[in-house]
């Protein structure tokens, strides 16, 4: 799964061994199992998220034990449910208050594409106001689907280099959303 290996100590060096890996991989592994999600739930998908946190599904076993209800202490924004156009600026402000690195998961049809609400007052996907890393389909999605989306975020976090956030491609993405 990971490329972190325990290597035997060279001849003449005492000890059980040492770890051989890159700093990027070690930090990615540590980050991926210590994500602090901020649930931004507005409707029925939030109820499914509550089930995901329950002992039966137990999202805590993936390292998301501590939910954060403060954007300054969270690194994963989980948007669940219908987001109205009036709420779009609030969602954007919450996103901007999060420290880098930050990731976003759109949970359910409404957060991903507006769902069945094709009206003037509903955002047709939160990617109109903030960048999204993982989309979880369903109306509402089952807890297993939310867990799968969380695992996809973990894989993204593990494979992300420390320099990705400074790359021109990432800066262009943020600029397309008007984020400096």
TrEMBL record:
Location, primary (coarse class): membrane
Cofactor annotation: [4Fe-4S] cluster
Cited InterPro entries: NADH_UbQ_OxRdtase-like_20kDa, NADH_UQ_OxRdtase_20Kd_su
Catalytic activity, as annotated: a quinone + NADH + 5 H(+)(in) = a quinol + NAD(+) + 4 H(+)(out)
Record text on cofactor binding: Binds 1 [4Fe-4S] cluster.
Pfam families registered for this protein in UniProt: Oxidored_q6 (PF01058)
Topology versus the membrane: Peripheral membrane protein
Molecular function GO labels: 4 iron, 4 sulfur cluster binding; iron ion binding; NADH dehydrogenase (quinone) (non-electrogenic) activity; NADH dehydrogenase (ubiquinone) activity; quinone binding
SUPFAM superfamilies: HydA/Nqo6-like
EC number: 7.1.1.-
GO BP terms, alphabetized: aerobic respiration; electron transport coupled proton transport
Subcellular location: Cell membrane
Gene Ontology CC entries for this record: plasma membrane; respiratory chain complex I
Superkingdom of origin organism: Bacteria
Residues noted as binding [4Fe-4S] cluster in the record, renumbered to the chain: 44-45, 110, 139
Family indicated by similarity: Belongs to the complex I 20 kDa subunit family.
Assembly: NDH-1 is composed of 14 different subunits. Subunits NuoB, C, D, E, F, and G constitute the peripheral sector of the complex.
Cited function: NDH-1 shuttles electrons from NADH, via FMN and iron-sulfur (Fe-S) centers, to quinones in the respiratory chain. The immediate electron acceptor for the enzyme in this species is believed to be a menaquinone. Couples the redox reaction to proton translocation (for every two electrons transferred, four hydrogen ions are translocated across the cytoplasmic membrane), and thus conserves the redox energy in a proton gradient.
Protein's name in the database: NADH-quinone oxidoreductase subunit B
Gene name in the database record: nqo6
């Amino acid at each position: 799964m990971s490329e972190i290996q325990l290597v035997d100590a060279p001849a003449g060096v005492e000890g059980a061994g040492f770890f051989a890996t890159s700093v990027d991989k070690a930090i990615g592994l540590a980050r991926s199992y210590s994500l602090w999600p901020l649930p931004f739930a507005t409707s029925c998908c939030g109820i499914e998220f509550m089930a995901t946190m329950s002992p039966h599904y137990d999202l805590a076993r993936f390292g998301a034990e501590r939910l954060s209800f403060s954007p300054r202490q969270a690194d994963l924004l989980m948007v669940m449910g219908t987001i109205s156009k009036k709420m779009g600026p609030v969602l954007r402000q919450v996103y901007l208050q999060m420290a880098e690195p930050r990731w976003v998961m759109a949970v359910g049809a409404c957060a991903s594409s507006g769902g069945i609400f094709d009206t003037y007052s509903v955002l047709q996907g939160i990617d109109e106001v903030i960048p999204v890393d993982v989309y979880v389909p369903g109306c509402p999605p089952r807890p297993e689907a939310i867990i799968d989306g969380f695992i996809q975020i973990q894989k993204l976090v593990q494979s992300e280099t420390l320099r990705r956030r400074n790359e021109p491609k990432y800066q262009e993405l943020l600029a397309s959303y008007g984020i400096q």
